[in-house]
Automatic annotation (TrEMBL):
It comes from Paraclostridium benzoelyticum. Residues 64-199 form the ABC transmembrane type-1 domain. One of its GO terms (biological process) is transmembrane transport. Signal peptide: none annotated. The chain crosses the membrane at residues 12-31, 75-95, 107-124, 130-146. This is ABC transporter permease.
Length: 199
């Protein structure tokens, strides 16, 4: 019975999504016909044909792959820097007090304000873009990692210590697994922020 209800719920969810998509396309088509300008609002089929052209054009596909490579590199740098720093700041209040003013100050600066400096530092090429992607993504990783570590109950640490666990075992078997959901949330936000930072 529960399985049947689950299937019905999935079917209804899919049906509502398809219905919403059809309604949006219909409104789009009617609006485009009334406006009568492909510059202001092109027809849905024109957009679809343009999309097919884009994904089949070798030059565009090549540029998309280059952009994805830059985003991936920037994301890896952000994870490599933000994850350890977030773990340390979340675990130690002393480190949090030391690094928090720097992190909070740097993340308030708009990403575009760093563009001239990155060009001076890294020159023209992939360097500035990768730096900006990493810079934009590192803060969600740091903040979510801190939140994940701080949300761990002290009872888990005390239980591990009472059983003779070393600091390394506590880190690998208690801290990291418990904070992993927040870390993954930060990583997901970093990826989306990185895409928005591509210039």
């Amino acid at each position: 019975m529960n399985k049947k209800r689950g299937l019905n719920k999935k079917f209804l969810d899919a049906f509502y999504k398809i219905l919403l998509f059809i309604v949006i396309i219909g409104i789009w088509q009617i609006s485009a016909q009334r406006i009568g300008s492909s510059l202001l609002l092109p027809m849905p089929m024109d957009v679809f044909h343009g999309f097919i052209t884009c994904i089949t054009d070798p030059e565009i596909v090549k540029n998309v792959l280059i952009t994805m490579q830059r985003v991936l590199k920037g994301f890896m740098y952000a994870m490599g820097f933000g994850l350890p720093l977030g773990l340390i700041m979340g675990f130690s209040s002393t480190f949090e007090k030391v690094f928090s003013p720097v992190v909070d100050s740097a993340r308030q600066v708009p990403i575009m304000a760093w563009v001239p400096l990155t060009i001076v530092w890294f020159g023209i090429g992939d360097g500035p873009t990768i730096f900006l992607i990493a810079f934009a993504g590192v803060f969600p990783i740091i903040l979510n990692t801190i939140q994940g570590v701080r949300s761990i109950s002290k009872d888990y640490y005390n239980a591990a210590k009472s059983m003779g666990a070393s600091p390394f075992v506590i880190f690998t078997n208690v801290m990291l697994p418990a904070a992993l959901p927040d870390i993954l949330t930060g990583a997901r936000l970093a990826i989306s922020t990185g895409w928005m930072s591509v210039i």
